[in-house]
Amino acid sequence: MKDLIIPVALIFISLAVTAQTELGSEISYQGNLTINGVPVDGSYDFDLYAYDAANGGNELAQFLVDDANVNQGFFSVELDFGDVPFTGNQVWLEIRIREGSSNGGFQQLLPRYKINSSPYAIHAQFVGADAVGNSEIQDGSITTTKLANDAVNTAKIIDGEVSNSDLADGAVNSIKISDGSINNIDLANGAVTTDSILDATITSADLADGEVGAAQINIAEVQQRITGGCSQGQYVSAINADGSIICNDAIDQSAQGVCQSSNGSPGVIFNNVCILDYDNTQSTDWNTAVTSCSALGGDLCSASQYVAMTTNGGTFNTDLFYSGRPRWTQDFSDNDSNSKGVFLHSSDDPSLIQQYSYACCGNVLPEPTRSNATDINGVKVTYLHDKQDTIWSTASQICHQKNSDLCTKSQLVALNDANAFGSTAVRRASNDLSDNDANLMNDVLGTNSLDNANYLQTFAFACCGLSTKPTDNSCPGTVIAGVCTGTINDANDSNFFDAARTCHAEGANICSKSQMQVLRNNGQFSNACWTSDGADNDSNRGAGVLASQPDNPNPNTDLFGYACCY
Fold this sequence. Notes:
This protein has helices at 119-125, 255-258, 286-295, 303-309, 341-344, 369-372, 392-401, 409-417, 442-445, 496-505, 513-521; strands at 4-5, 9-13, 27-32, 34-35, 38-39, 42-51, 59-70, 74-79, 91-99, 107-115, 234-239, 245-249, 268-270, 273-284, 299-300, 356-361, 374-376, 379-391, 405-406, 458-464, 478-480, 483-494, 509-510, 560-565. It is α+β, with helices and mostly antiparallel strands and 566 residues long. Helix 3 packs across helix 11 (513-521) and helix 4 (303-309) crosses helix 7.
């Protein structure tokens, strides 16, 4: 094919639209196609290109028309380049054709044709001011990409025209909001939450009177107004977060405060030993002495507590039991071959009817000693010295300074279970002067301990609270004739260690000989029993124990009953 001639070419924008039809981007292109001057008939394919130059240049768009009808050389085709080529710059049209029945290549027709503007298109390049109004712009036809930065400002926006749905998430931030421009009426109910308020941005000036009440505060962080009060004789011990108060009875928990009998009568603190009552007339038998002390809620004092009562101070003799008068102790005052004579002046293996003096001790630990004490297997320990280097009388004085006493043999069971003294050989002091009872107490007192020990021997020692009653002297168990008791096991089924551990587990101790005597006097016990000093029967005297019990019992193999005392 050659000498193709298109003598006529007309290009115009189709305006065939109605009010309901949106104007498209199609272009009608008409012309005459001749070959060697002869008009052609038939079907032809038209491959149309838009360029930005008459020769060479850049291809802007392309559109293919298949099987266009050519009649007597005349043809008319609709092509659609879209709006991409038409940006206001000159555009040239290049045509390539082939017969409609052909699948071969296209023949390029040269030269390219310059696309001229129609009169109204010329006008579109020079739109006058306000020529395009709302009625000329279709809804949704202007997108954000058509707008220059800052093209729309407050002057261009009618009040109320922009709603929440028109704003992207995060589109309005603090930079877009003028100070003071948002007031209460601009905010929906609940629009401002705690997440929307910066810490410390709300001051008292921002709050109306009465805005913050009890319902608005976090009582875990803010104390409410204190309400209520305490009765006479009570004190405020704590304030709850909601302002309510906790009251306690105004009990003196110091050593002076807890040194009182069960009826509230005050005792006397002598060299840090609480003495509820004493009698130095040397006219009281064993049973009368133990009954007198239990009636006060106390017990006969221990051998080590009598050490404090025989102390000389300065140039004045301050021995509470002057003139060497003998006295009853809670372990029956056995003098053990006169090894305790310097502070007991008693007989070796005394009888129940001997006439002695006595003192009753109240052994309740005061505060802050009680809170500072260490609990070792149920025993309150106020001081522990694990070296065998202190004479017995000095060790007892140290314990008195701690508002406590040397531990009993039964309490040493708890400390030994905890390996408090390290070696099993080290000699340990007890409040009855650590009589080893024919070396049967080695497992309690250590293999270095002696039978009938001397107070000038050196010991390791621990200080214990002898009573676990509360600081108000109330009894956590059952009161029997003034003795505060826990478990009472009147069956011959326990060795000394098991009895001690059972009592410690409930926060008590094996009762002393004097306490056991009170229980027997009141029909509470009938069989053999362990006592806190190991239940040495002292030649079958039967003080608190049965006369039939062995002298020097074996703590490992003998099986007795027991009672626990607080």
